[in-house]
Each structure stands twice: as structure tokens, then as C-alpha cells.
């Protein structure tokens, strides 16, 4: 029997309360689309003298913890701040950086959500089905390997370059690779797998553990700063991490009148679905997901209008969506390595470039306390320090005659065709 859970699940629309079974993703009542959220039983205090993700266990929806799960390192980025014209810039860095005493072995903050989601599952879990553009796949694959949790992970073939680990994956972790596909294709295909018996959709932003795990960035930062920041900056695909950070800030604020951090969500043009929604632009999303530097930011179905979703976070925090192109993101990646001495991922480059533009345009003022979430970094350093093992697909679905498709049903048809033929059996 699972240990008693120290929180309740509450619908952000109707207020219905549920005891968590470790799997629930949606309120069964009939109403507008709405996130479930967590309400915790006790007052929060981070574990003193402890390190790692689960020193924040009082605000994580998990009944089991993993001692080696890392957390971000938060530090004042004086040199980078000077280059941007900011006097109080703080960085929350997630990745591999031994000199800063952090070792996320897949290089991104997606490890925060992976360990929390696995810790929330019931004792005998179904096969967890995860869709990813690369970073989430790597985080879940390695965490599930270390703790032998069955996972089926669907990703486009272009993400396989990120599937390199300190050791081989456990057989309980299976990679389904889609040739000639996009992140949106992987999401659609994962939905099909999740319908199979004894399989369960991980849920993305709908999973309270994913949001609360990513919200640890804000918990770690508030602990380091002794306060909430004025501005929070993050690159986003679905916006899950930014929503989680906002929810964490609300919990930390409690009933006080302390202002919530303004949330600046950053995307990569030419394909920026959240910017398109924020501007209320009619018609299809312009650009192509294949043309951006940071493909992890190309979720074409973000939870924008859901109750408790992106729109509500932007409105409540006074935030906005920013976007920069590939050239600006590349320049920001170079700037970070020059000033901080560590390589960062393209998504983090997008956030840094957007922050630089926000300072130049006056959206962020010189003396505000700014928290920049560097969502991934140190991958090049990791490759120097460790001999990484490339993962092998469990199932590879070939591209159709025209390659990737904008039709979300296309990967499903390809999968059905593949498994229906003797060669795909």
C-alpha cells in the first residue's frame, strides 16, 4: 500500500478535491478545461543541511524520494548581469557543472520533473508513456533506468543525438523513434500508445508532479535569495516550467501581499505558438517547427487557455511572451560561455537573448531582481568528462513518402501501418 500522501488534488475550475492515486490528470466533472493543482498539508520549510531535489519534499507530490536526484544551483551572475546592464541578476542553472557542484547527467532541468513524476506513481505503476522533443526523453529515460520504472518514450529521430547516457538504458525503458517527424508528431503518437492496456499517459503540463517538480527552480531561488525575484525569465515550449514556477511562488507568498514575480516566457522564432496565442493572432501559426534552433520549444498545442494555464499565469503575474530568432539565441549562448565559463543549451540561449532584448527595450529595469532560468547546460563539459553510451531505439517508425506532416493523425497512421505488417511486427 502506498504511503499516505501529504497533499490533496484540487480542480482549479470547480474546486473539487481528490485523494491522489498517483495517476489522475484531469477533473472528471463537466466544465471548462482546467488544471488540477496540489494543496499541501503543512507549512513549507526546505531541508536544512540537505542537498538535492527532495529537500523540498514538503512541496512535492511524491510518496517516494530518490537520494541522488539533483536540484538547480542558484547564484548571482555578476559578470553576465554587467554585460546585460543588470545589477541584480541571478541564474538558476540546471545541468552539468562540477565547479558549481551540480551534476544533472542529462544536462537539463527536465530531471526535476522526471524524478518527481516517478516519485508520484503508485507502487505498481503502469507503463508510463512520455512524448518529447529530446530533453524530457533523456531525463525520463535515465531516471527510469536508475530506478527501474517502466517507460515508453516517443521522440522524433532528430532528438536521438541527445540520447547519450553514462551507461546503457535498462530494458524497462523503451524508445520509439519517429523518422522525419516533429515534436508535435511525437505527442500525437504517444497519445495512441497511452490507449494500450496497462499504459498511462505521463500527461505533460496536466501532471501536477511535472509542474511542481519544475517549480523547484523557484523554491531553490527563494531559498538562495531570501525572497522572491521581481522578474522570472524562462524559455518555454508548453509553458509547464513557467506555470510550475508561478505556482511555487504563490505557495511561498501565502496570504501576504508580496508581489508575484513577473513571468517572461520566451520562444524561438520563426515558430512561436505561445507568442501567436498571446497576440491573439488569427489563422495558423506561422513558420515551421523544423526551422528553429531550439526544437524543444515547439509544442504546437500548449495549454494556453486552460484554467490555471499560460494565459492565467501571464495575467496574474503581469508577464508577457517574448520571442527571439536563431541568430540572437546563438549569440547569447556565446555570451554566456564567455562570461560564466559554461556552455548552455539552445533553449537557455533563447531565454538569455530575450532577457537582453527586454532590458534594452525597458521591459526589465536595471535594478530589478531578475531570476534567469538556465534550463540546460554543460552538455559539452559532460562529454569531456564521461564516455557516454548512445541509446538504441526499441521501435523505429520510418517516415512516409513525404516525410514529416502537419497532420497530427499522420504518425498514428504510420504506426498502425507499421505494426500491421510482418516487417513491423
End-to-end C-alpha gap: 37 Å
The domain count comes to 2
Helical residue percent band: 25-40%
Mean pLDDT: 92
Beta-strand share of residues? 15-25%
Which secondary-structure class do the elements indicate?
Answer: alpha/beta
Unreliable parts: none
Question: What is the number of helices?
Answer: 13
The dominant shape is globular
Largest sheet: 6 strands, mixed
Q: What do we call the CATH topology of the largest domain?
A: Rossmann fold
Protein name: Cysteic acid synthase
Domain Tryptophan synthase beta chain-like PALP: 96-376
Keywords: Coenzyme M biosynthesis, Lyase, Pyridoxal phosphate
GO biological process, one term: L-threonine catabolic process
Amino acid at each position: 500500500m502506498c504511503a499516505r500522501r501529504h497533499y490533496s488534488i484540487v480542480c482549479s475550475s470547480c474546486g473539487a478535491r481528490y485523494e491522489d492515486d498517483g495517476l489522475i490528470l484531469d477533473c472528471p466533472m463537466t466544465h471548462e478545461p482546467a488544471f488540477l493543482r496540489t494543496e499541501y498539508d503543512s507549512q513549507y520549510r526546505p531541508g536544512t543541511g540537505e542537498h538535492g531535489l527532495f529537500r523540498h519534499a514538503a512541496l512535492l507530490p511524491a510518496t517516494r524520494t530518490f537520494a541522488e536526484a539533483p536540484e538547480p544551483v542558484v547564484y548571482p551572475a555578476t559578470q553576465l548581469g554587467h554585460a546585460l546592464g543588470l545589477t541584480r541578476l541571478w541564474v538558476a542553472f540546471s545541468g552539468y557543472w562540477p565547479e558549481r557542484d551540480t551534476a544533472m547527467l542529462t544536462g537539463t532541468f527536465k530531471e526535476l520533473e522526471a524524478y518527481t513524476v516517478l516519485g508520484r506513481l503508485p507502487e505498481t505503476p503502469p507503463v508510463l508513456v512520455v512524448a518529447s522533443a529530446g530533453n524530457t526523453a533523456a531525463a525520463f529515460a535515465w531516471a527510469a533506468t536508475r530506478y527501474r520504472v517502466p517507460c515508453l518514450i516517443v521522440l522524433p529521430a532528430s532528438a536521438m543525438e541527445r540520447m547519450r547516457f553514462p551507461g546503457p538504458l535498462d530494458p524497462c525503458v523503451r524508445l520509439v523513434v519517429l523518422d522525419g517527424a516533429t515534436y508535435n508528431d511525437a505527442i500525437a503518437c504517444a497519445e495512441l500508445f497511452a490507449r494500450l492496456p496497462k499504459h498511462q499517459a505521463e500527461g505533460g503540463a496536466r501532471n501536477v508532479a511535472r509542474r511542481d517538480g519544475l517549480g523547484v527552480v523557484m523554491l531553490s531561488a527563494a531559498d538562495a535569495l531570501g525572497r522572491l525575484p521581481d522578474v522570472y525569465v524562462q524559455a518555454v515550449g508548453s509553458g509547464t516550467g513557467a506555470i510550475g514556477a508561478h505556482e511555487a511562488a504563490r505557495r511561498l507568498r501565502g496570504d501576504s501581499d508580496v508581489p508575484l514575480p513577473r513571468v517572461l516566457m520566451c520562444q524561438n522564432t520563426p515558430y512561436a505558438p505561445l507568442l501567436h496565442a498571446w497576440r491573439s493572432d488569427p489563422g495558423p501559426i506561422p513558420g515551421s517547427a523544423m526551422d528553429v534552433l531550439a526544437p524543444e520549444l515547439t509544442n504546437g498545442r500548449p495549454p494556453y487557455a486552460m484554467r490555471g494555464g499560460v494565459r492565467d499565469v501571464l495575467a496574474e503575474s503581469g508577464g508577457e511572451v517574448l520571442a527571439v530568432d536563431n541568430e540572437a539565441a546563438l549569440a547569447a549562448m556565446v555570451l554566456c560561455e564567455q562570461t560564466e565559463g559554461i556552455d548552455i543549451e539552445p533553449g537557455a540561449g533563447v531565454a538569455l537573448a530575450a532577457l537582453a532584448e527586454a532590458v534594452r527595450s525597458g521591459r526589465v529595469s536595471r535594478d530589478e531582481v531578475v531570476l534567469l532560468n538556465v534550463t540546460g547546460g554543460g552538455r559539452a563539459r559532460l562529454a569531456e568528462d564521461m564516455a557516454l553510451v548512445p541509446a538504441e531505439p526499441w521501435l523505429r517508425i520510418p517516415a512516409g513518402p513525404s516525410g514529416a506532416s502537419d497532420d497530427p493523425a499522420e504518425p498514428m497512421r504510420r504506426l498502425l501501418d507499421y505494426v500491421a505488417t510482418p516487417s513491423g511486427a
